[in-house]
Amino acid sequence: MVVRRAWFLNFDAEEELARPQGYTPPLAMRERSRDLRKHVTALLGPDDVVIEDGCPALDSTFESRAWCPTPRANKAFQKACVRIVAAPDFATIRRVNHRKFCADLGQFLPGATFAASEAEVFTTLAETSRHEHWLLKRPYGYAGRGRMKVTPLMGGDLDRIQPWIKASFRTGDGLQVEPLVNRRADFALHGYIHRHGEIVWGEITAQVCDEGGAWCSTHRADGTALSQAEAVALRKEAAVAADALKSAGYWGPFGVDAYRYIDLEGCERFHPRGEINARYSMGWPVGMGDRRPDLESLL
Predict the structure, then answer these.
(1) CA–CA distance, 82 with 219 (Å, rounded to integer)
(2) Do residues 235 and 291 both lie within one domain?
(3) Within its chain, how far is the Cα of 257 from the centroid?
(4) Which of 74, 111, 116, 151 could form a disulfide with 128 if both were Cys (CB 3.0 to 4.6 A apart)?
């Protein structure tokens, strides 16, 4: 049976996760999404199409596929008259993409914590001032968005970022607080969780990000990119993440980001689980290659 898929590439899904009462992408984001599509052509099968908000109707011979299965994606599928495949409920999608979900599996950077209050943010910064620079991350972020660099030792810096912190707690329920380290190389391991629990793993990838944390490119990591210990650590933490995702009721594509960095003593360290992305990602088709259970019929 030939399966044709209609894709809704909501690259800005985290915006909707952060604002579940309603999100409409601005024109700039719509244009940015069109630019990003050319980087994920490997995600699509030969007979697949990409739909947009307000696109003409297709027909029921197409199965839905979403970058992230949000209500906005489902509305687009309904308007396009394609068959919508089952996906985890939106509450589960929000939970597993929340930074606290990853943080609860354990922190690796010294002093890092997921702060549940404004007071905890400032207490963490005050008690761990050995690091000159810190990074605050809102619960949902992508492409370097939703973060703020802080320099606690500089007079007035905390006062400067206090409005941003207050705004973060008005619209969210916590902040990831972690030292800003000198990242030297970024990696990821991707996989796919079948609804019945089986996991299909891809290969480790190396990715290039800009200074703000936005993705630039991805390629398969060669045998010398990571040490054996680093590869083992990444695979271990990816397995931990996959088990947690399954326990939370999630199935579908996912990825775990990791990176190598330089500590305060100038030594190389490896952070084996920086983020969990319970959705497709720019490097996902690169890491998965021809291991594509998502291209099979999901009905």
Answers:
(1) 33
(2) yes
(3) 8
(4) 111
